[in-house]
Amino acid sequence: MIEQAARLAGQCPACGDPCEGWAVQLVRDGKLAWDLDWEHAGCSASHDRSWGLAPEWVRKAIMSQHGPHCLQLADPEQRGGAVLKAFRDAFGLSLQEAQNSARALRQSGYEGTYVEVRLLADLFEREGIAAGASPGPCV
Questions:
Q1: Given this model, what pLDDT does residue 136 score?
Q2: 58: how many CB neighbours lie within 10 A of its CB?
Q3: Which residues, 6 or more positions from 95, have their beta carbon under 8 angstroms from its beta carbon?
C-alpha cells in the first residue's frame, strides 16, 4: 500500500478545543483516497474519509512535511486518451480537469504528493507510457 501522512495541529471540529490529528493520503483499491483523524482528551474522535484528491490544505500539509514530487513524461509530446484516463481514474477528475492536468504534465510536469505521483506513474506504466517520478518540485 502506498501512503503518506502529515501530523496536524488545530481546533477540534466537534468542540473547538486545541487538538492534534493526522492527514493521510493513500492508494486504496487502485484509487486515491484520504483520511483525516482528529483526537484529544475529553472529546470523541473525529474521522473524515473520501476518494480523489484531498482538500488543498491537506495536500499542502503533506507536501510541507514531506516535500513535493514531480512526474514527467519521457516524451512531452505524448498524446492520447491514456494520459487523460489515468488522471480521471486516479483522482476522479472531470474531463476538463484531466485536460488541464495533462497540459501541466506535458509542460513542466505534474507536481503533487508522493502518493499522487506514484499512483499516476503506476497507471502510466500499465498503459505503456514512459514517465519518471522524482522527489522535489517540477522545474
A1: 96
A2: 20
A3: 84, 88
Phi-psi region of 55 (alpha: psi -120 to 50; beta: other; left: phi over 0): beta
Nearest CA to 34 out of 46, 49, 19 is that of 49
Per-residue DSSP letter, 121: H
Hey, what's the cell of 94?
472531470
User: Using an 8 Å Cβ cutoff, are 137 and 70 in contact?
Assistant: yes
Provide the greatest CA pair distance for the chain.
56
Beta-bridge partners for 3: 26
Mean pLDDT to the nearest integer, 47-63: 91
The pTM for the full model equals 0.88
Res. 98 pLDDT band, cuts 50 70 90: very high
HEC assignment per residue over 60-118 = HHHHHHHCCEEEEECCCCCCCHHHHHHHHHHHCCCHHHHHHHHHHHHHCCEEECHHHHH
